Amino acid sequence: MDEPDPEWLLEQLDLGEYEVRALTELLTIGRTTAPTLSEATGIPKARIYDVLSELSDRGFLKVIPGRPKEYQPKPPAEILDRAIENRRQTFESERQSIQSMREEFLETFRSRFEAASQDITPTEELFWVVDVGEVSERETRQLYATADERIRVFTKSFEYLPAVEEALSTAANRGVDVRVLFVHEEYLEPDNQAVQAARMDTLDAIEGVDYRISESKLPVRGTLADPSMEYESGKALFLVEEEDIPLALRQAAVTENASFVAGMNRLFELTWEYESLEG
């Protein structure tokens, strides 16, 4: 297995090129002075103090008083913890900034939206579409994150699971009932059969996730969140089977119509109960 690139790892902490170079060297050689670090890294002497000040402000190193000053990196675990806290504080600051303009935003745009929406038909209001890929995966993660009671997934091989696994696992860990309905492998190409087997292994490792295998083809693929047979709640993202159209060219439909979601859930539960096999 190849060793990870140290500079690439530090770039994930939103550090610039010079900050990455400086911190990589500090973590390699330990406590040192600014001139020595400048010479070792090629960072111009006119910039090295600003670079070290930035790393200090972020909490990634300690400044040792003296003549000359010395700079010592924090332990890697402490650097990561501080990076997480820095990002949390940034997010919270941005959240508060957006929240502070809520009243003004609504007052400015609500009437415009209502006027522009007068000609939308009931059918157009029932669904909206998103591109399949990163956009649909982001929407799926949001469904998992906001589900309170149930998540139901129709899928062939769950090939996109790596992109949504963390959100699915988090939902299961907080007690959401998660069920996944796979298509039987006889309806899959060999490559998809291998993907399906790997995804089942992944789901086996997530406590609280149950799955079964449909005995027949499924007419749709997608996710239901909090379906209610009382038509009180529910949201769904789905696409119908169109084997002749490449997945990258398809669009998925999203709906918050509780009645429609309840109907899809009825299909799921009947298939789960009467037309599926244990995985």
Automatic annotation (TrEMBL):
Listed InterPro entries: TrmB-like, Tscrpt_reg_TrmB_N, WH-like_DNA-bd_sf, WH_DNA-bd_sf
Domain Transcription regulator TrmB N-terminal: residue ranges: 10-76
Coiled-coil parts of chain: none
The protein's name: Sugar-specific transcriptional regulator
The organism of origin for this protein: Halodesulfurarchaeum formicicum
